[in-house]
Give the backbone structure.
Amino acid sequence: MAREHHSYTSRTKSASPADSTPTGSFPKVKSSSRHITFSHIAMRLVVCLLCAVVGMAAIIQHKNIQSSYASLSENELVRLLDETNQQMSLLENQKTQLSNQLESIQSAADQRAQLQKIENENKTTQDILAGTLPATGPGVRITIRQGSSHIDAGTLFNLIEELRNAGAEVIQVNNVRVVTSTYFENTHDGVDCDGSELHSPYVFQAIGDQEALTNSINIAGGVGSRLRVQYGASVSIEKKDALKITKIRQPKKFTYAQPIE
Amino acid sequence: MAAVIGLIIGIVAGLFIQPTVPVALQPYLPIMVVAAIDALMGAARSYFERSFSDRAFIVSLFSNIIIAAVLVLVGNQLGVGSQLSTAVLVVLGIRIFSNATAIRRFLFRS
């Protein structure tokens, strides 16, 4: 009441600030000091920029630390060097081991290839000797025409033996390939060779040294003269530079014998 | 708010661009970063205590960074660089911890 009165009186008494309403009954709103000025914005921007720089520097340092030795102390560097050296010697050892291994494997492979080659050569030789492969080479062809008397199987076998002694490698009689088990047997008008009947003329083909083969037949008192004199047969020898012996034998099947590994 | 945005921008920028640090600056960069983090923690504390001032933050940031770098430089010149940088890191770490404690007290009232 008094207050109203006072205000009333003040309003009536002082005319000049007639419209000044007393605001004492209302808490005065604290005036905001945040006047957005240019310098404020600039400050904000500077703070923002500085924080950005700090963050970036932190990240860059974080990235940098993984690749840089500059920040390491001497002890750490020495330790690092030691570790690297140790690792290096380890790797060297490993490398030596591996190269040794490689070498041994290579030499083993070489050896195996060598063995394979020898084996193949042997196989070819054996096959030629066993008569399972056709063969070609220089040699002689001996044609024997039966004369007055029947030529004995033993004489023909002698001729084969002579040829073998002279180093004949492959022999064929008519159409029979001569091998280690070849036999001759007398029949009434010819010979039986390995189950096939042969008649005159007997054609022997032998691969080997031509001179030696010719000499072995023509030698004085040899099988050639015996054929001519004893049996009245004609013996002609032709040297051939590329004699082809194409007759082959099937490899023999062994029933009892087995190779020793 | 501006500081947080700036930090995020800076971290993202650091992740994507790969500037090479000059060799002369390399020994000082970690110390400078730690000093700047100390200044940031101080600013965060004063922000929570409603006494944050842009000017004070900027000045403290620069002074922290420069003093830390100069200390390490002097230490390097005197042959005690690693020890002195350790000392600087210890002091800055203590300050960071005390500032963090103050912020925590303010946030959790405990």
